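The authors assume throughout that readers already know how a fold can be written as discrete tokens. The format is easy to grasp once an entry is in front of the reader. For illustration, here is how one protein appears when written out as sequence plus structure tokens:
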Amino acid sequence: MSKLLAVGTVAFDAIETPFGKTNKILGGSGTFVGLAASQFGIETGIVSVVGGDFPEAYLSMMNEKGINTDGIEIIKSGKTFFWSGRYHNDMNSRDTLITELNVLEDFKPVVPEKFRDAKIVMLGNLHPSVQDSVIAQMTEKPTLIVLDTMNFWMNIALEELHQVLKKVDVITINDEEARQLSGEYSLVNAAKKIHDMGPKFVVIKKGEHGALLFNEGNMFFAPALPLAEVFDPTGAGDTFAGGFCGYLAKTGDISFENMKNAIIYGSNLASFCVEKFGTERMQELTSEEVINRLQAFKELTQFDIKLS
């Protein structure tokens, strides 16, 4: 069975949107990646850290979905990472209300022996030096290393980010981050600049406007499925990454042509994530629902045209 190693946060979120608000609920980049990847019947291992306040029931839920949690360190005397945010009416912008790093502040990931030969590695949005330490623990060179980052790390750890970018195959960032990292406004030019930093493939996420894939002069665009209601965008980008990596781990094909399919699978799963608060929708998602919506994606993007 193909193995996917996902390194990221397993956390508590408290979210407020125009549709309502929550108390502390399950969140974190590693959690969303793992739940998305669980749709592909592959073996996914999460490396993260939580405190003694983290419910055993959440870990059991992940295990039941085939997610290996041996790499989630539990610090009994500590508290789990907590983030609280409020989304604006457009659901594209938000204000961070609370960030409590807690046990994440001194997180030193340890990759379980079982996953040190994973073919696909997803490095979630963490300090670049932490991401680099995970690569160093792999006993076999992964087929594909995918890295997510954000403007926060570009502001405080740009040199370390450039070092780890030399070692990865794919970077997934949003359009604003791509412009900051590259210094280019045009996303085509931004992708070229980022490609020169190391990654062979550049994935630029544009939220409700879809995602772009770049590779050595090749380009592909996948739209986001138009939805009647978006309740909570939190975790959509990580769900996209989990679907992208999960599909590639299942198929074992990392060609540009197959990455197009992976982009569609990632976008498809992200469209479910936003329908309810936190991880709720991803926990209850069925394979039948996934296939039905994939068909809707196909109908949205497929057309016949006569070229004369």
In short: The chain has one domain: 3-301. The domain at 3-301 is CATH 3.40.1190.20 (UDP-N-acetylmuramoyl-L-alanine:D-glutamate ligase). The mean pLDDT is 94. The radius of gyration is 18 Å.
